[in-house]
């Protein structure tokens, strides 16, 4: 099975996260550990998730000076995670330092992904930050910079997927949060797409948290979405 869905484990406590993943099938999805859960559970939690045969996207979005980010991604590589990320807006030197830091891990290195513009941000909010170019142009520029610095792909909205695949290349990995089944609550996400639209746009990995976790039957919701998108190969 092509495990394109990455379930966001946005729980406060490690035991809640482990209880939840014990209902899931590691052949069906990967899981994402973000700032809240990693702060609570740390490396022991990552080991407990690995012991359950799940691949982990460590979503800590490192954004700091090059030396600090390089050390942080190397520490993530030591944990044996499948994917780790940094902010593309950390700039060229930071991105290159992150890449260089995981080179020694060879085939065991995690996929290194850069966040372009958070999916919770709108074009208006980006302007407020002083970014004058249109949002899609800014996302594309950050994706191109990330590719030039040797990163494996980016986090973006599925709304930008076609543009990035066309301009940067089909092999450049796109990881997209902000996935919402038709008619479901958007919460704090601004740039959303349905799972079907995201796959049709060329997305590689769909990050989904609340639409799965908060559904009445998370296992059934995940299975239904996985089945629907598995027929939409790209
Ligand atoms: O641009 C970004 C980067 C990361 N995220 C993370 O993805 C999940 C989305 O959860 P939902 O409940 O499906 O909204 C969450 O862990 C974010 O920290 C993102 O949403 N956007």
UniProtKB/TrEMBL annotation:
Organism: Aliidiomarina haloalkalitolerans
Gene3D superfamilies hit by this protein: Aldolase class I (3.20.20.70)
GO cellular component, one term: cytosol
UniProt GO molecular function: orotidine-5'-phosphate decarboxylase activity
InterPro entries in the record: Aldolase_TIM, OMPdecase, OMPdecase_AS, OMPdecase_bac, OMPdeCOase_dom, RibuloseP-bd_barrel
Binding site residues for substrate: 10, 32, 59-68, 119, 180, 189, 209-210
GO annotation terms (biological process): 'de novo' pyrimidine nucleobase biosynthetic process; 'de novo' UMP biosynthetic process
Assembly: Homodimer.
SUPFAM superfamilies: Ribulose-phoshate binding barrel
A Pfam family matched in the record: OMPdecase
Keywords attached to this entry: Decarboxylase, Lyase, Pyrimidine biosynthesis
Residue intervals of the Orotidine 5'-phosphate decarboxylase domain: 4-225
Function, in words: Catalyzes the decarboxylation of orotidine 5'-monophosphate (OMP) to uridine 5'-monophosphate (UMP).
Family: Belongs to the OMP decarboxylase family. Type 1 subfamily.
PANTHER family xref list: OROTIDINE 5'-PHOSPHATE DECARBOXYLASE
EC number: 4.1.1.23
Name of the featured protein: Orotidine 5'-phosphate decarboxylase
Pathway in which the depicted protein is active: Pyrimidine metabolism; UMP biosynthesis via de novo pathway; UMP from orotate: step 2/2
């Amino acid at each position: 099975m092509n495990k394109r869905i990455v379930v966001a484990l946005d729980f406060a406590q490690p035991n809640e996260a482990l209880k939840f993943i014990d209902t899931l099938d590691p052949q069906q999805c990967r899981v994402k550990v973000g700032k809240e859960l990693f702060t609570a559970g740390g490396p022991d939690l990552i080991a407990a998730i690995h012991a359950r045969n799940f691949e982990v996207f460590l979503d800590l979005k490192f954004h700091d000076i090059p030396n600090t980010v390089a050390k942080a991604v190397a520490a993530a590589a030591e944990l044996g995670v499948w994917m780790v990320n940094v902010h593309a807006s950390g700039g060229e030197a930071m991105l290159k330092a992150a890449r260089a830091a995981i080179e020694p891990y060879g085939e065991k290195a995690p996929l290194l992904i850069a966040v372009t513009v958070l999916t919770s941000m709108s074009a208006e909010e980006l302007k407020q930050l002083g970014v004058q170019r249109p949002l899609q142009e800014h996302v594309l520029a950050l994706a191109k910079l990330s590719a030039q610095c040797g990163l494996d792909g980016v986090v973006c909205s599925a709304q930008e997927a076609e543009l990035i695949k066309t301009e940067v290349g089909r092999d450049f990995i796109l990881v997209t949060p902000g996935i919402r089944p038709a008619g479901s609550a958007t919460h704090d996400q601004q740039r959303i797409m349905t799972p079907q639209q995201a796959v049709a746009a060329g997305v590689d990995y769909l990050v989904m948290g609340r639409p799965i976790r908060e559904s009445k039957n998370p296992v059934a919701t995940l299975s239904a979405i996985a089945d629907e998108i598995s027929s939409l190969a790209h």
